[in-house]
Structures are given as C-alpha cells and as structure tokens.
Amino acid sequence: MYWIYLDFPQLALDLLQREHPAEHALAIHHNKQIIQLNQVAYQLGVYLGSSLNTAYQLAPQLHLYQQADLSCESYFDSLAQQALQYCAQVALHEEQGLYISGAGMLSIYQQPEKHLKQLAEHYQRQQVSFRIAYAETAIAARWLVRSQDIKHPETGTKHLPDLALSYSDLPSAQVTSLQAMGLYTIKQLSNLPRPELRKRLGEESLGALDQALGLQNTPFTFIQTKACYQQRFPLLSETHTIQGLSFPLKQACQHLQQWLRQRQLSSNTLLLTLSFRDKPSEQVSLKSARLLQTSQDWLALFRLKLDTLRLPAAVLEFSLYCQALYPLGSEVSSLFEQQQSSDDNLLFDQLSVRLGEHTISRLSCQADYRPERASQYLPLQQQDTLSYPSLFPRPCWLLPQLKPINIRHFTLLSPPERIASGWWDEQSINRDYYMAQCPQQGIAWIFQENKQWFLHGWFA
Amino acid sequence: MSTLPFAELNAQSNFSFLYGASHPEEMVEQAERYGYQAIAITDDCSLSGVVRAHQAAEQLNINLIIGSQFTTDEQCQLVVLAKNLNAYQQLCRFVTQARKHSKKGSYQLSLAQFDQGLDQCLVLVKANKNLQATQLSQLKQQLKQPIYLLLHNDLSQPVSLLDNFRQLAKQQQIDCVASINPRMHLANRKKLTDILDAIRQHSTVQQAGFLLSSNAERRLLQWSHLQQRYLAEELTRSATLAAQCSFSLNEIRYQYPKDNVPKGYSAEQYLRQLVEAGIKQRFGDNLSTELRTQIEHELALISELHYEHYFLTIYDIVAYARRQKILCQGRGSAANSVVCYCLNITEVNPQQVGLLFERFISKERDEPPDIDVDFEHQRREEVIQYIYNKYGRDRAALAASIVTYRTRSAINEIGKALAIPAHILHGLNHNIDWRDGNSNTVNKIVQAGLLPENNARSFAELVSQLRGFPRHLSQHVGGFVIAQDKLCDLVPIENAAMPDRTIIQWDKDDLEALHLMKVDVLALGMLSAIRRCLASLSQREQHTISLSDIPQDDKATYDMLCQGDSVGIFQVESRAQMSMLPRLKPRNYYDLVIEVAIVRPGPIQGDMVHPYLRRRNGEETVDYPSPEVESVLARTLGVPIFQEQVIKLAMVAAGFSGGEADQLRRAMASWKRNGKLAYFKDKLINGMQARGYPADFAERVFSQIQGFGEYGFPESHSASFALLVYISSWLKCHEPAAFCCALLNSQPMGFYSPSQLIQDIQRHGVTILPIDINQSDWEHSLDYSQHAKGAIRLGLKQIKGLNKGKFAHLLANRPSQGFSHLNQLTQQLDKTSLESLATADAFACLAGHRHQTRWQMSGTEAPLPLFDMPNEAEVNLTAPSEIEDIKQDYLATRLSLRRHPMHLLREHQALKNCYSQTQLHQCKHGQLVKVAGLVVGRQRPGSSADVTFVTLEDETGNSNVIVWSATAKAQRQALISSRLLKVHGRLERCDEVIHIIAGKLEDCSWLLADLSVRSRDFH
Q1: Interacting residues of A232 by C-beta distance below 8 A, sequence separation 6+
Q2: B84 or B437: which leads in pLDDT
Q3: How far is A219 from chain B (nearest CA, A)?
Q4: pLDDT (tens digit, 9 = 90+) per residue, B885-922?
Q5: What is the nearest CA distance from A390 to chain B, expressed in angstroms?
C-alpha cells in the first residue's frame, strides 16, 4: 500500500502566466509579503517572503496581485477530477493538494514510481507547476512533498526519518521548541519515549506524527466524480423527419424526469446531440428562464426548437446531456418581491428557445446620473433592485441619438435640472435639462450643453 | 468690493472629514471674492477648522461666523451658530457634550438634547428629506427661541420640493433662509468631492453611482446664481441673521492658570521671590552686575507681556518632577533664560552660552512663549497624571495633532477610488522620489509613465489637491493646554484613541495663532538612562551623586568625542554625527551646541557645513557682508547654522518685518505639506540682493530655510540638548559600565540595539556576564565583585516572552546562595517562563546544557494536589554546538556573548582577504579593500538623495560603506536583499573618519544559511 501526494503550490501564478507575455515579472502577495513569483521576477532578485517595497525596488515593473483577488478553486477542482482518471480514491487538502491512494493500483502500475510517473506526465501536459512524492502513508507523502523546492524537486527529502521537522504539519512554535532541544528530524523525534513525547507534543501533534509513521489511520473524505445526466438513445429505425423524433424524445424526457426526480434535482439547460448517417453530429442547446424537471416542460421546449430545425441526414441516435443541476426548490424568491407569473416565464422560455437566449434581455436602472447610462439591458435572470433617486420626471422615450434643436421653437416649462458627472471615463457631461413644449404641443426633454440645445426625449 | 445682502451660513470645510473638499481658508477667501457679507464655517460637530478660517478672515474684509453642524439620531440636521461670546462657549460645551460619550472621531446626539444651553445661539434646521413637521414643532418648544429653516437648492431636486419646505415652514411659522450648503469653494473641486465620497463609502467612483453628487452645485455661488435659485427674502434673511452673529475668536479671553500663586502674593511678586531664591542657589553671593541686569531685564519683559503665570506653571510641573526624583530638562524658546535657570527649569547656564532672552521672547514677533520640558520617558505618565489631577480634566487637555494626507496616502486613496491597479499605485509611491516635498507632482507622475499622460495629469492634480487635507485628529506628543477656567468654554474637547486621554479640537498652530499657552510635556529616553546611571553610581559610592557633580570641560571626555567614539551618547551617536565629530573636534560646550545642530537637513541642504568646518580650521577667512549680518552670525563664524539665525537674517538682510519673520517661521514648519514657503522665496532673495548680498548667498540661505522644514532645529533646543550630550559623554568616558547598564535598562531608546551597545562596551574592556537564574536580577545590574571597572550582569528582562510580574516574588525570595535545584523553580514559575529561561541558557549553573534543561522544562506540569507526579524516563540529548548556542542566544535574547558569526565565518574561502573593521585603520587613503559583515543599517537620507549608507557589522566593529546611486542601481539585488554583504571598494580616509566607497557588492547571505545547516537546522 502506498500513497501519493501531489500539490500545486503556485496554481494562481500558473493561471496568471497564461494571461501575461513571457517577459513579464509576476508575483502574488498576501499580507504584503511575496508568496509566489515567476522566473522573471526571481531573476530580477525578488524572493519569497520579501516585502512589497523590497520587491518593487528590485523589480520596478513587477506585476503584483493580491492573493485574495485571485480565485483558482474551480480550476483546482477540475485538476482534482482529472486525477480520478489515474486512481479510484482522491482526497483534497486545503493547500491545493491531492492525496491519491495507491490501494489496488499496483495491479495496474506494478510500482508506485510508475503510478507517480503517469500522474506527473499528465499534469505536465496541463502546464501547471506541481510537486509530487509517494510514501507508505498519506501524511508522510505530504510532508515529503513539502520538503521539495518547486524549481528543484530533486532536492526534496526522500525518506521520512530524515525529514526536517519544519516540513511537517506540527505547529511552528512546537517545531521551534523542539529545535531548542536539539531535535531536528522525524527520526530524532520518533526515537524518544512516547509518554514523554505525548506530554510535550500533546495528543493532536502526536496523532499527526503517528499518522505519518503509519501507527494511526488518517480519515479521508474522497471526492466523487461530478454528477451529470448523460444518456444515449439509439433509434429503433433511423428517421429523416422531426416527427420521427417526437416519440423517442418524449421517452427520453420521461427518462430524464425520472432521473431528476430520484435525485430531487432540476435543471435549466439541456444539450441534445443528434448523430446522423454520414454526417457529423449536431448539438441543440436548450436554456430555460426557470428550473425544470417534468418531461412536459422539456418536451414543450424541444418542440419549439425542433420546429425550425432541418435534419441534414437520417438520424441514427441521439443523446441528452445535462450538467447544470440544482437541488429542487433552489428558485426561492422573497415573499415581497414581485413574482413573475408562470405565463411570463413560459413566454420567456418560448421566446428564448425560438429567438435564442441572447436576444431576450430585461431593461433595468443603472446607478449613473447620465441619462444615456441610466438604464441598461440585463440578462433575463438577473434581478434589478435599483431605483432612480432624482425627483425630476424622466421621459418614457429617449431618442437613440441626440437631436440638435433651435430653442426658439420650444417653450421651457420647468427650472433646470443640472447634471455634471462622468469625468472618470471620458464620457463627461455638463448639462441643464428642462421640460419644454414643442411647436406641435408635445412635451419634450431638452438640454443645453456648451451653449448648444438638444432634444433628448419625449414625455408626451 | 461692495457687500452683497447674503451670508452663507452652512459652509462645510475639509474639517468635515472626507466630505468637505476645500480648506476653511479657501472657503473664506472665495466668499470674500464673491462679496458675501459673511460666511459661517459649520463642520460636522467640530470647530477644528475655525482658527484657520479666522486667520484668513482677519486678513480679508469678511465676517466669519463660528458654528457647527449636527446630525441627530433621528437623522435631523441642525446648524448652530455663535452670536456672541456666551453663545460660543455654549457651542463649545455642546460639541464637547456630544462627543463626550463616543469613541474617537464620532459623536452622538438626539433632538431631545437641543433643549437647553443654546439660548444664546442661533439654531437653523436643514431642510432635508428626513425632516418632519413634528420635529420642527418639538424643536420650537424645546428651544423657546426662533428657529429657521435652511433651504438649499443645488439643481438636483425640483423646485416643487423647495416649495413644499416653504409650505411646511409657513405652517410652523418658521422663516426660511437661503444656503448653498457648500462643500467646495469652486466647481473645479467636483472631482475631488467624488473621490472623497467614494473613499468614504469604500467604493470607487465608477461603482459609487448615486452615492456621488449629480453636479458641482454645492459650491459658493455668485450673486446672479443665488438670485435665480432663492427668493429675495430668503437671501436677505441670511444677511440679517449673519449680522446678529458678532462673535470673533479674538474675543476669547484665555487666562493662564493662577493656581500656582500663593495667597497674599501677586504673580509678579511670587515669581520674583522664586527667582531670587534660585539666584542664591545657583550663584550664591557671586551674582555679577551683568547677570543681575539681565535678570531684571527678563523679569521686566515677562511682566510687560504678562507671562508670569506661564513661567509659574512650568515651574510647578518641574518642581513636582524633582520632588518625585524624575529627571527633567527644559528647552525651547523661553527656556534658556537666566530666569528659567534660576527656576531650575533648565540646567543650561546662560553665562556659558551667552544666549539673549530677546532671541526667544520677542515683543516684536508677538509669539507666545515656548518651553518644552523633557522628562524621563519611562516616568512621563506620572507627570501627565499630576497635571490632570491638579487642574482637572475640564481644565487640562492635550492639544490635537491634525493628521493630514501626505503624497503617498493621497496616491493610495485616490488610486483606490479610481480603481487603479495596486501595482501601479505601488509604482507611483515607490519608483518616484517624493522626498523633496510637493514640487512638480504633475511632472513626476507623468514622467513615471505608469499612467497614460492625460490620466496621469488628472490624477496628479487630484493628488496635489488632496495633499494637506486633514484626515483625523490625533493627540499631540505631549502638548498640554491648561486654562484658568473650564477649557471646554474655550474649545471643544473630545476623546482620543487612548483610554483616559482627551484632546482639544485645535492643534499647536491654532493655539499659537490665538495665543493660548501650551506646555510640552515630552518624553526623553536619555533622561531615564542618566537618572538610572546616577542612581547606580550613588549606590556604589554610598552617597548621592547628581548632575552637578559632573565636572565641566573634562578633557578626556572631549578627546573621546573627537575620536567619534559616541555609541550610546545622546544626539551624536548616529553615523553622520560620528563622522562629523572628528572633523568638528568639539572642545567645549558651545562646540557641542553647534555639533548638535549642524548635522541636520537645514545646514546640509544650505551647504553650510563645509564652509563652517573650513572657517573653523582656519582654511577660510571669516568675513561678514555687513555689520548687521555679523551681529547675527558672529558666533557661528559667519555661517548660519541655527533656525533663529536664518529668521533673524531674513529681518536684517532681506528687510522682513517682525510679523513677516514670524510668518516665515510658521511656513518653514509646514512647507512640505502646504508649499506656503514659495511665497517668501522671492521676497527673501530680492530683499537680500537689493541690500547688496550676493545672489548665491541668498539662494543658499533659502535652501537652508527649506532644509529646516519639519526638522527645524533652533539654538535654544540645541543648547539644552548639548548639555545632555556632555553629561552622557562624560558618563560613557568615565563610567562606561554604569552608563551602558543604564542604557540597556532604558531600552527602547536611541539608535542602537542592546546587542550593538554590548558589542561596543565589550570593545571598551567592560565584561558582560550572561543571564544566570542565580545571579541576574530582573533588570541589568552592575557587578563590582570581581571587576574593578564594573561588569554588567544581563538581567532577565532581556529574555523574550518573560513577564516581570511573575518574577517579583521569585527574585525577592531567592536563597542567598542561589537555587540549588530546578525543582525549586518549577514550583514557582509557569511552564512558558521556565522554557524561556531554559532557551536563554539561564539554568546553565543548575542543570547542564540548554537542550537538556529545555527538555526538562517543557515536561513540567502543574502538580496535582493528591498525587505524586510519575517520574519521567531519562532522556539524554546531545549538547548544543557553538553555532547552535549562538542561534539560540539570538532567538531567546536578541544578542549573544559568544563569538560573532563573522568570527566563525572569517576563514571561509568566500571571505578570504576581507579586512575586519579594525584592520581598515591600517589601510591607506585610496587603497582598494574588501570588507564583509552583517548588514545592520541601510539608510538613504533625504538630504543625500544620490547615496545609500550601509553599515556592516563584524566581530571588531562597524564599517561604513557608501553606495552611490549608479552602483546601487546596477547591483540593486545585493544592496537590498543581503543580510551578509561583501563589498569590494576604495577606502577613503578624512580626519580619521573611514568610509568604503562601494564598487562591487556581493550577497553572501548564503554563508549564514550554511552556518544554520552546520547547526543541524535543515531549513
């Protein structure tokens, strides 16, 4: 039995490097200390643990990021999922590390080294920096990995007894205390009488040591392959028409409904893949404004979508794939929020299926005094809670383009509302808005800027 | 300009922190330009900005109204204005009351509190959206006087809303008053208001949206605009109300505390009596006619300016300190007088220095007297508490210190508000040299190339505007304001961040402007050290030894100083001072006065140091451009060194009046923040040239004035400090062990760490004994038993993590022969203390090496009442190597008495042929040398922007390395990162001062890591 430990100590930096040219010096800091840096920064003299001031003095063009601003959790999750291709049991460590169990793997890899090599080759292909080691216990493997320098992994300690205590997970104050007694390695520690050691280390640290030495088991929660619905539906006979697909699709939607019900799940996206004779397969994506579960709902959307679809060849089979899964009842709104009726939702679903989801937007307020920017289109699902603070009336109809006017043809009906804002994005305005009556008796919204008058909208 | 029938009654300056976007004086000046009848500065529950506004209003033809704005818990906003002196006092008390029970910077107030104590004030209610009719009627009932509704129209709300408020006022039978409620004086501050709003809301201008103002109308407006927005009666009513407010800050009748005059005496009589007693004590019956004349002259001037109570107050504080045996020393403009010498406020004998009283108290300049008193830093709190107890918290409070935005903080805050990436802000802060103040901000930011040019200009303008804006009030380091009556009748008092500390809302400049007395109660570490040293000498000699027992003009002391041997000596221990001592070669007290003042940015930037040294060494003729200049500069050989000299020079050589000279002095103190000095530049240079002085000399004098800046060092301070320089030098020279022991016990203080002080004293032949549980006290102590010169026994306080309280009982009950077994200690001390003692090797006398004792101590458990503790299995740990011992010494005590790490590394191939510090003395000027050492100092002083000074420590001493900017730039990494540095360079020797001019720098820190590995530490 063996364990492999693999960690990604500079995952955030690896992702940043993909966005920057190779010649950029990059570093990430936490609490104003450098915690990750790339080779360019290193060559300029920046070092781990240096203060930001020192780092900038050494590399004035340094591109510096704060750790808290960078998120690579989802990427780490996907890296962890990839590990499942090479073993059955993978557990996560919070420092972006993976415990990989070798249980039963010798029959595949014969030697731990080969297993380790396979994993290393895989992650090299992903172009991420990692450290990897194996040992008889999971904790020992982790501690050995901690002794490796990311740039020179070969310098790491190979055997647990030789490992410096500073690489263990013992609290640093405890390590300092042990060093003050001349105790530096695991071997020195494990040679001491246990009752005396327990007294000095406490149960927790002794437990960690015992787990590393294999004297105690380490409990793990292993990750699972992420849940998704994926099902092939071969047709009994190939079909050239949409109508021919109706019944099989109905059965498929019932199958999906059953699968979702069993798991108390719902979804708002579904991917239909059609496989044709002598033609590449095609994908049809469904997206709903609400979470769906029942076969009727799915089928209704399919009918709308398939109405406009032309089959290039005979369909041999199709598959359904659904990954965005949500627990049933996720769509809980506030008691007092204005609820959209189910008819509205149905309409939105039908429109987005017919016209494409990107074509349906919701008009909402935007926190900007400039009339051109006071409203915006938001995706249908996004909520809008903002209201405009001004008590001045606003016209219902804004012209798409400002229209220069001759003020002599208008009669001013109100004192001015002055808006001077937006200097920060070079779309600065400095206008006096008025309600005014036009010669045709219409009520217009006009403004003056730089002594020029413009028509901006109509009230009536 | 004719006056308009309008007064702005609700202007908010930048003392409404992070809201107002103009200085109070800018508001006043702009209001005057527009012809307003008056302007009221009404900051948020604060009168902090009113003195600046008052000073501006005094110079202009405009009335200033003092007031404040309040927001109650009910979100009702009110403005309170002071109509007369009584009203002002009510307002001060009201602000104090509102802030009394709130933490620093905040206040709490409900509408119900507006019920009394404001009957002399004018109360106006702001018409905002939260205002309710019931609130107006409640206020009317409570205040029993007319209230007014302040209407503001900034074109962001419809007129119908204003009409609603007018209707409400009519219903409540209240008159409406027009107000713009400005937060900026000009529209061009709109960007800054948006930035301030974003900072206040922890947002960015891009995201702040409706939290920003929709336009720039909250500014002072011209009459034509006002007429368009308000009814005529609302405008004229503002002027009518303003006319009711006649109060001016000039009416404040500050009175010195009179507590210190016994019954039956006048202040003048009592002061004279004390001075006469002092004359007897100081001069016996040998008072010269000349000194008698001087004393009479000083007393007459004090009497004429009514400063008796001021001197008596200082005398009382100093007398208290002396009764408590707290060492103290006065300094400052009035301290170096014969009167202060006789009152024991200072020990500087005026005969020795020949200082003229008028130089410090001037009728012409009309400044309040200034005496700072330094107390032992470890006992100053006793003096502060004495002042609070004697005068009460309602009569004494600390002055405020107004913390303002500096360039870097302005860059950071504006940058965040504009969502500029952090690395660009860091670049702007650190890649640009900001040490020369606020000049060329725009060019510097544009040239840095970190922002597109347009953005850079806009950004730089915002930085220039925000710089100097107040951020919050802090407490002054020790400036007490004491009043005869309640202080909160003069100025509001609020809570400081420290518990039990209160501050007034004015800073030292405000106090000075209004002629309020401030007594600076300051802390000085050297006084603690001197008192401790004298106490230990008294104990040794079995009789009291005081400062007066220290002989004057001791040759050996000056010989020591001339060699630059000054580690630990007050004021002259810095590297720059150490280099100056062998050049200036001080031989008497006044030389020390100059020595203290000459190594300062003022004389250095004014290029006055070398001319002075040349003249002193007879290499340059001493001449004076005119007899007037000679009268000012004669005592410094024609070269201006002191702050007073350049101010006096401005008067005699450039024709400044007394008042202008005073303005110059104030501008000097804050020119980096507000750039006001530029105004005086032309006046000074043109004035001097017009009187026949060379342009070059005038330019240098101006540079010197700039250099004095915030580090201004007047002769009066230098004279007091020089006395402590001499005393500490004498003690170091003749009682090195006692002096060093006192320094160690007074830490933290001075330039050097305990480790550096100990290395220096060891080189002077004093033995240092290690920490020992059977020999050491809590503090470091002197041991004369086996060492005639005295040895220093390190005290337990040097060990990290020990608590003094836990050791009092243990040390008091230590057996006379010492502890004989560790068990005696384990029963009395906690595990952490025992482990710390073991790590520091304090048990070496009892139980062998530190590894073993640490193991034993870490196994200590609290004894169980009924059970014996089981015996532990024996564990034999290996003894530490020398390197392990050194490392543990540093970890436990930050110093080691064992060999220096450089001693251990000296033989390493990498350090071959490197000279030690001692060996450098045998090298010739210009010789190429290699030196190596631990980097203990890296300094890039503002006065020498092109150079970095590096101090390397080895087993024989400290070497000074000079790295020029080109070398530094090319070898940045080694310069910045090295802990152990090897330098290939050229030796320069001048008057026994040795420097290495660095050529190649080599980072040898890896040798230390190598040592660590050898200590069996694997990381």
Answers
A1: A317, A318, A319
A2: B84
A3: 30
A4: 999 999 999 999 999 999 999 888 888 899 999 999 99
A5: 7
Instruction: Output the pLDDT for position B728.
Output: 97
Same domain for B90 and B103: yes
Q: Summarize pLDDT for A99-121 with one digit per residue, the tens.
A: 999 988 888 898 999 999 999 99
Domain match, A320 and A429 both: no
Comparing CA positions, the residue from B19, B30, B24, B29 lying closest to residue B77 is B19
Alpha-carbon Rg for chain A, nearest whole angstrom, is 32
CB-based contact A285:A271 (threshold 8 Å): yes
Confidence tier at B671 by pLDDT (50, 70, 90): low
* Residue contact B858–A181, C-beta within 8 A: yes
- B95 and B213 belong to one structural domain: yes
Average pLDDT, chain B: 89
Q: Is residue A389 part of a domain?
A: no
Confidence band of A171 (pLDDT split at 50, 70, 90): very high
| Peptide bond before residue B748 is cis, with ω within 30 degrees of 0 | yes
pTM of the entire structure?
A: 0.81
Cβ of residue A424 closer than 8 Å to a chain B Cβ: yes
Please indicate, yes or no, whether residues A204 and A256 belong to a single structural domain of this protein.
no
Q: Which of B157, B850, B976 sits opposite A391 (nearest CB)?
A: B157
Residues B219 and B267 in one domain: no
Distance from CA of B878 to the nearest CA of A (A): 7
Whole-angstrom Cα Rg for chain B = 33
* B681 and B532, same domain (yes or no): yes
Within an 8 Å CB–CB cutoff, is residue A63 touching chain B?
yes
Q: Do A421 and B215 touch (CB under 8 A)?
A: yes
Please indicate whether, in this complex, the C-beta atoms of B427 and A58 are within 8 angstroms of each other: no
Residue type, B892: A
Tokens of residue A14, six digits: 């690896």
Same domain, B277 and B245: no
Structurally, how many domains does chain B consist of?
Answer: 6
At residue A335, does pLDDT exceed 50?
Answer: no
What residue type is assigned to position B12 of the chain?
Answer: Q
The torsion region of residue A213 among left (phi > 0), alpha (psi -120 to 50) and beta comes to: alpha
Choosing from A307, A327, A347, the residue where a domain stops is A327
Provide the 10 A C-beta neighbour count for residue B322: 12
Q: What is the extent of the structural domain holding B841?
A: 767-865+874-893
* Distance from the A199 Cα atom to the nearest Cα atom in chain B, whole angstroms: 6
Residues A134 and A103 sit within 8 Å (Cβ to Cβ): no
A383-402 residues touching B, CB cutoff 8 A: 388-392
> With a CB-CB cutoff of 8 Å, which residues 209-228 of chain A face chain B?
none
- State the pLDDT confidence band at B1016, using cuts at 50, 70 and 90: very low
Q: Determine the Cα–Cα distance for residues B620 and B162; give it in Å rounded to an integer.
A: 78
The answer for residues whose C-beta is within 8 angstroms of residue A390's C-beta and 6 or more apart is A369, A417, B156, B157, B214
Angstrom distances, CA of residue B142 to CA of B107, B112, B116, B134, B591? 21, 8, 7, 12, 69
- Sign, CA dihedral B219-B221-B225-B231, equals positive
Q: Which of B715, B544, B600 lies closest to B646, judged by CA?
A: B715
Integer angstrom CA distances of residue A103 from A48, A225, B755 = 37, 18, 57
- What would the mean pLDDT of A426-447 be, rounded to a whole number? 93
By residue range, what is the domain housing residue A282?
229-327
- Residue A412 within a domain: yes
Helix (H, G, I), strand (E, B), or coil: what is residue A280? strand
* Cβ contact, residue pair B430, A53, below 8 Å: yes
CA-nearest residue to A164 within chain B is B1018
Q: Same structural domain for residues B362 and B237?
A: no
Q: Which tokens in the block code for residue B926?
A: 């210009």
β-bridge partners, A7: A97, A131
Q: CA nearest B195 in A: which residue?
A: A424
User: With helix as H, strand as E and coil as C, how does A382-436 read?
Assistant: CCCCCCCCCCCCCCCEEEEEEEECCHHHCEECCCCEEEEECHHHCCCEEEEEEEE
Domain assignment present for residue B512? The answer is: no
